[in-house]
Design goal:
The structure holds two protein chains of two kinds. By secondary structure, chain A is mainly alpha-helical. Chain A has one domain. Chain A is elongated and about 85 Å long. Chain A starts with 13 loop residues before the first helix and ends in a 12-residue tail after the last helix. By secondary structure, chain B is of the alpha/beta class. Chain B has a single domain, classed as Rossmann fold. Helix content of chain B is 38%, strand content 28%. Chain B contains eight helices and ten strands. In chain B, the strands form two sheets. In chain B, strands 6-7-8-3-9-10 form a six-stranded mixed beta sheet. In chain B, strands 2-1-4-5 form a four-stranded antiparallel beta sheet. The longest helix of chain B has 18 residues. The termini of chain B are far apart. The relative contact order of chain B is 0.17. Classes of the chains: A mainly alpha, B alpha/beta. Chains A and B meet through helix 1 and helix 5 of A and helix 2 and helix 3 of B.
């Protein structure tokens, strides 16, 4: 009816939201690092388990007598098809669950810390969708970066331990394909968990009202 | 159509706290003219903040109506309210409310981006306004790297960047020392004259009174007294007299 010169606010595209989130993430680097630490450790553990399993399977398959002695010395069952048993799978599962809960928890805290900031942005004309986008991107980015760092860490530890135990044999029989597949698997799992964990806190952030900007902290 | 930019008619707000009804506003009516500088005064708990938030569309009345440029705020949907906040109102806060992870330039440019302006143009517009408030040399500083007075200047630049019709300032001098507070008031006045904006300010600060065209005293959720220029200047003296005595 009469509202001819009051328009509807237009949403902000993902690209601009990404720029805003990315520069915020860089400036809050230390805070982000704490959030990332959980992801880094969980994914490092996962990547380590997957990669060292591949390495040992390759070494066993070499059927080298001297190498078999070394393998048995480090308690590897050379007749088993895989070094990963169900106990290890449970541990991996638990660490990934901790990772999921950790991301959700630290993002919810970040939202609570920045309630006033969200209120202010809404006073400036931000729509809920902008808040959802920026928090979703921020959380996902932290998760994906943490996952990549975790994979590199896990790979280094797995190769490092193999080098200590089996010396030069590690490189003679290094299962490159298997390692790349393990790293990709860890990347998919880690990123998947991070992006999934980002959804809830992003909507929680968007529910904050513009009036929060007026709150005066004592 | 009236020449009032804001009208409040019998605005009532009742909060339910458990079993009890708390009457924050008991029917406030007020008309604010375009280009006017209005100070809303009142002790904390007077309903001043509640009323102030309603003018900005941040809170909705239980009964009564706030209109802006003839449009009833209660009839606007969320996207329209966001548009009004973005294009019609510039908010200034007691605690400055700058985004700590954004530079001065980015803090101002974000408002322009919400208005749908492309980032490169938004940065140019933000730089222009920051220049105008005297911070052309602080564009790439983070809020934590500048003084309180400068932070409030950034906030004023942010409030002005979309050329709003109204500035809503909540205790803009509350966190500043006497001299810096006076500078901020002078800047607001300068901008009001230059850009022909209406300023509505919630304040305790007596310094703000001499800059105001109208002062509304709110007490117990109602307008206790409304005074135009000339009427309250005598009043300031007597209030000062009382504080000294």
């Amino acid at each position: 009816m009469a509202n001819h010169n009051i328009e509807e606010q237009v949403g902000i595209p993902w690209g601009i939201a990404f720029t805003v989130s990315w520069s915020g993430l860089k400036r809050r680097f230390m805070r982000s690092l704490i959030t990332m630490a959980g992801v880094i450790l969980a994914i490092a553990f996962l990547a380590y388990m997957l990669i060292s399993d591949k390495i040992i399977v390759a070494l066993v398959a070499a059927k080298d007598d001297e190498l078999n002695d070394l393998l048995q010395k480090s308690n590897v069952d050379i007749f088993a098809s895989s070094a990963t048993d169900s106990m290890m799978l449970l541990l991996i599962g638990l660490s990934l669950l901790t990772c999921l809960v950790g991301i959700i928890n630290s993002m919810l805290m970040a939202v609570t810390e920045r309630v006033k900031e969200i209120g202010t942005l809404k006073c400036l004309g931000a729509l809920d969708s902008f808040i959802v986008k920026t928090y979703f991107i921020e959380s996902s980015l932290q998760g994906v970066i943490g996952t990549i760092i975790g994979i590199i860490l896990g790979l280094s530890v797995a190769v490092g331990i193999a080098l200590v135990n089996y010396g030069a044999y590690t490189f003679s029989y290094l299962p490159l394909n298997g390692i790349v597949i393990s790293m990709l698997a860890a990347l998919v799992i880690g990123s998947g968990i991070s992006v999934f964990a980002a959804i809830g806190p992003a909507y929680f952030a968007a529910r904050k009202q513009p009036v929060e900007a007026m709150r005066v902290e004592e | 159509m009236s020449d009032f930019i804001i009208t409040a008619k019998d605005v009532t707000k009742v909060y339910i706290m458990g079993e009890e009804e708390v009457h924050a506003l008991r029917g406030i009516s007020m008309n604010i003219k375009r280009g006017e500088y209005v100070s809303i005064m009142g002790p904390s708990g007077s309903g001043k903040s509640t009323f102030f938030n309603m003018i900005g569309g941040l809170d909705t009345p239980t009964a009564g109506e706030v209109t802006m440029e003839g449009y009833k705020l209660s009839e606007l949907n969320n996207r329209q309210l966001a548009w009004v906040r973005c294009h019609k109102i510039g908010f200034i806060f007691q605690g400055f409310n700058l985004i700590p992870a954004m530079t001065a330039l980015e803090n101002v440019a974000i408002g322009r981006i919400f208005a749908g302006v492309a980032p490169a143009q938004a940065r140019r517009d933000a730089a222009d306004v920051l220049e105008k408030v005297g911070l052309g040399h602080r564009l790439d500083h983070l809020p934590s790297e500048v003084s309180g007075g400068q932070q409030q200047r950034i906030a004023i630049a942010r409030a002005l960047v979309n050329r709003p019709a109204i500035i809503l300032a909540d205790e803009p001098t509350g966190n500043l020392d006497l001299k810096t507070g006076q500078e901020i008031i002078n800047l607001l006045n300068e901008m009001k004259r230059e850009l022909d904006i209406t300023i509505i300010s919630a304040t305790h600060d007596m310094k703000m009174l001499s800059a105001s065209d109208t002062v509304a005293w709110i007490k117990d959720g109602a307008v206790e007294r409304l005074a135009g220029k000339g009427e309250f200047e005598i009043e300031v003296g007597s209030i000062d007299g009382q504080t000294v005595a």
